[in-house]
Amino acid sequence: MPLAFLNRLRDRMPYSPPSPLPGGAGALDLRVDDPVGLPMAGVAVSVRNLGGQEVTRGRTDPNGRLTVTLRPGTYRLVVTSDGFRPERSEVEVVAGERTAPRPIALEPAPALPLPAAGQWRIDPDHSAIRFTARHIGLAEIHGRFNRFEGGLWIGERMEDSRVEVAIEAASIDTGVRMRDEHLRSAEFLDVTRFPYLQFAGEWFVHKGGSRWTVQGVLQLHGVSRTVQLDTRYLGIGTGIAGETRTACQAVTELHREDFTLDWRKMLAKGIAAIGATIRVELDIQAIRPE
């Protein structure tokens, strides 16, 4: 009954007539559904020519639809969404016509095996902690921390796990020696007083597919703030020495003023270094100790 009601509601939505097509072009009207036939928003669609080159790409709207205008010809579609099997198909676009293939139904992808319960050590040689910031609103600055250590304690339920990471503040590296020295100074990280950035996360929430949220507390510049990591779990593998590894990617955004790093004060002094918002990206591999 609920599914029938939703389908009737969708059928009653106001109809907007399609816009006219440019001369000599055709249109491709796609719809993507989930396994129970409901529209899926935000699904990535890549349209490629027969040589494999991407012609255009887009994402479905809240009604699970995407319309693209193309030159006449045969195209290959690659439809992807996290937690679902990719779907591939071919379509023919005809000049002056709107091609509407059957709705593409995505199926759930097999769940990746989770790491075994117990302690895992972060491997700094196969991990990276990078950041991106604006240079006073102009070009981007890219940097990384070269020295860090930490571990994962995986619970019997993944939701009961925790992670701890300690980052050596003085290991900051943006590729410019003068700028790095300035970032280590008392006006920024103040590495003499605060030699480490520390993160401790004890809240793991499954968001679907391979997506998790890891929430914890970051200590930076003597201040503690709650931080949320948008995390993609990559699964289990075996290293060259036969060791068991697990991996993930995570991203978060930090605001300097949350950690008493006053960028306006810096600008008032004529110091042009790093903007107020910093994007942090992590590529982590962890090893199961013998």
UniProtKB/TrEMBL annotation:
Show the PANTHER family listed in the entry: PROTEIN YCEI
Stored InterPro entries: CarboxyPept-like_regulatory, Lipid/polyisoprenoid-bd_YceI, TTHA0802/YceI-like_sf
Q: Which Pfam families match?
A: CarboxypepD_reg, YceI
Q: Which domain of life is it from?
A: Bacteria
List the Gene3D superfamilies: Carboxypeptidase-like, regulatory domain, Lipid/polyisoprenoid-binding, YceI-like
**Domain Lipid/polyisoprenoid-binding YceI-like span(s) in chain numbering:** 119-287
Q: Which family does it belong to?
A: Belongs to the UPF0312 family.
Please report the name of this protein according to its UniProt entry.
YceI family protein
The organism that produces this protein has a lineage beginning with: Bacteria, Bacillati, Actinomycetota, Actinomycetes, Kitasatosporales
